[in-house]
Amino acid sequence: MMITPETQLQTIPRISPKYAKALEKMSIFSIRDLFFHFPFRYDDFSEMRSIAELWSGQIATIQGTAIKIKNVRTWKKKMHITEAQIQDETGTIKAIWFNQPYISDTLTEGKKVRLSGKISADSSGLYFSNPVWEMESRIPTNTGRLVPVYPETQGLTSRWLRWQIQTFLKLNLEIKDPIPQDILKKLNLPEIKKALKCIHFPNSKDEYLVAQKRFAFEEMFLVQIKSIQVRSSWQKEKSVQIKFNEKLIKKFVDSLPFKLTNAQKKASFQILKDLEKSRPMNRLLNGDVGSGKTIVAEIASVQAISSGYQVAIMAPTEVLAIQHFNNFCKIFKDYDFNIALLTNSYKMFYSCHSALDAESILSKNDSVDSRFRGNDKERIKILEKLKSGKINLIIGTHSLIQKDIRFKDLALIIVDEQHRFGVAQRAYLQQQIENINDGLKNTVPHFLTMTATPIPRTLALAFFGNLDLSILDEMPKDRKKIITEIVGPLERKMKYDFIREEIKKGRQCFVILPLVEDSKILTEVKAAVSEHKKLSEEIFPDLKIGLVHGKLPAKGGSASGGKSKETVMKEFAEKKLDILVATAVVEVGIDIPNASVMIIEDADRFGLSQLHQFRGRIGRGEHQSYCFLFTSSDSGLAKKRLQALVKNSDGFAIAEKDLELRGPGQFFGTRQSGIPDIAMENLTNIKLIQIAREEAQTFLQSDPELKKHLLLKDALQKFDEKVHLE
Ligand code: ADP
Ligand code: MG
């Protein structure tokens, strides 16, 4: 049998169907997949000792002969104990295993073995408790070295994985390296075969660190190639030129109830200038929550629409789409625009010049109004109006980029992404937009994305180097500062009393519960349900308390009579609830100006930027607002981090701090970034991303289509598939 990295594991005789199944569960099908199943940590058993040198508490490895072996059942007959005496030239030590009776099948008297583990002590002396062991004649795999520990699943132990991986590595199979050799050489990174050896069976910490760095680089390099390719294909496109009409813009800006901040002026101007070009704009508007990004989007829209083109706005959730719809309808009420809302469950057409004025169809708390609901017929009507050009502005979710949607003359797409996407997903989205049927021959729309999380400039350059950047680093003037406090367990009661007072004054309160990283959604729901119960039964039995968590249906009522997220949010918005308990997974992105207090439970578990995001949900009305960061952590670092939030209200400063304290991996969070774990975990500094970007740039200059690097092209393809499957 000819074995290659692509050989399927189930065809290997040594691997029984039972194991093949377990491997499949972890998406490991081929030998290559197995090679890329990386350890998540290493046990350091590299310290070799003679028995006389051992001391209690030490982690060490010894080699010796098994001289006495016995199996014992404990008095309750519940526990099976295997005991062995191991001897070397310097002495003897006892080894004990619990509930592993099969050990005595292979570990028999006279065998020469190697043992690794922690040394314990009792009245009769030193002993090994549950040590790992293997025959001395074997190449050190499970003992006597840095031992890899893998993500496991039922029936699949690290010990088994080590054996398999080591056996396959020994075959010295031909594994082609997608990264060009000269780049690796230049960066002093190992080629793929060496790196695989080092990541599974390193001889030193340095060896696995450099191997990890190599694979992190590989991922980043692919991300960067992808993003540069999208950029250059974007730059080859043409777009319509939308002339800057100063009079129009001035009139619009003068009609606003406030003065633009300088940052807003500057960003708007940059965008209006971009729109004049025959190359499509590709710009990221980066500003803190509440920095006023919407108005900038509105300025761009008024210009595009008045020049006779269509504009599309995409929001990440239906709730936010509706909020934008309200907002745009109101702001354009004196303009002769037709605006439509189109999401999966909401369809609505609104003509600014109809007999109805905005206020009368859009009631005050209409953010989740059932009157916006529409059926398929209405969807078809809206699609027709889009195609004929009757609709000037359409607002929706990602459902706006569906195949059957045709525009007449779409010239501008704005994506309010609220920090949802990473570079790779964004590149994918952009490709989709490039293919959108905008109705205009041979052009693509101008593209503006807005992100609600301030991204430090250094990081933005590395991650979003393919975009032009506008930054809103200045908050509208009359914003009240949110009073933020760190609250320990002892002051909890006091804060509850304070909240009661606020509610008496007519205010409302959010309680945000932590999202435990990699915890199952069910645990989270449980925590939310029990917190809700505690608050409504013990602490505030007299108040009305709502609950939203990830498992509630998005909208409508559930069969069991339970409420949907939407209903609960609506009740909160309408002041039918005093307190809203929400898990961190729930989008609380809607404006509730009357909410003036926020409690964040276990605040130390969140990233600073995320905390800052939550906090941005309050302080939107005229009332003084308060954010209480509850924590029971004594850790100095946790306190220091939270302090940064107490002291700062500037999102950019907070983001810089977060970056400094936790690194970019944590900053973006693996889930949002779309960047694989290994890369994320190893991005302790942004240098690597910058290097990856520079290398990708130089590389693409010499081979823009990857014609000479088919392996890389292949890897990119696979990477691509992975990204949009997510
Ligand atoms: P975000 O950047 O989070 O999307 P919004 O665009 O929703 O922020 O703006 C937040 C609030 O600030 C809105 O109510 C908006 O009307 C208001 N606002 C925007 N710009 C200004 C300004 N220059 N002066 C005063 N208020 C402003
Ligand atoms: Mg916004």
Features:
4 domains; 726 residues; globular; alpha/beta; Rossmann fold; binds magnesium ion; six-stranded parallel sheet; OB fold (Dihydrolipoamide Acetyltransferase, E2P); eight-stranded mixed sheet; binds adenosine-5'-diphosphate
What is the helix content?
25-40%
Structural class per helix/strand content?
Answer: alpha/beta
CATH architecture of the largest domain: 3-Layer(aba) Sandwich
Bound molecules: adenosine-5'-diphosphate, magnesium ion
CATH fold label of the largest domain:
Rossmann fold
Q: How would you write the strand order of the largest sheet? A: 12-11-13-10-14-15-9-16
Largest sheet data: 8 strands, mixed
Number of strands: 22
| Alpha carbon gyration radius | 31 Å
Low-confidence stretches: 357-369, 667-683
Mean of pLDDT? 84
Q: Please work out how many helical segments DSSP would assign.
A: 25
CATH homology group of the largest domain: P-loop containing nucleotide triphosphate hydrolases
Q: What is the overall shape?
A: globular
CATH hierarchy, class of the largest domain: Alpha Beta
| Domain module tally | 4
Structural overview:
By secondary structure, this protein is an alpha/beta fold. It has four domains: 1-43 and 150-175, no CATH class; 47-144, Nucleic acid-binding proteins (OB fold (Dihydrolipoamide Acetyltransferase, E2P), Beta Barrel), CATH 2.40.50; 246-472, Rossmann fold; 483-555 and 562-648, Rossmann fold (3-Layer(aba) Sandwich), CATH 3.40.50. 40% of the residues lie in helices and 18% in strands. It has 25 helices and 22 strands. The strands form four sheets. An eight-stranded mixed β-sheet has the order 12-11-13-10-14-15-9-16, with helices on both faces. Strands 17-22-21-18-20-19 form a six-stranded parallel β-sheet, sandwiched between helices. Strands 2-3-4-6-5 form a five-stranded mixed barrel. Helix 8 (246-254) crosses helix 10. It is globular.
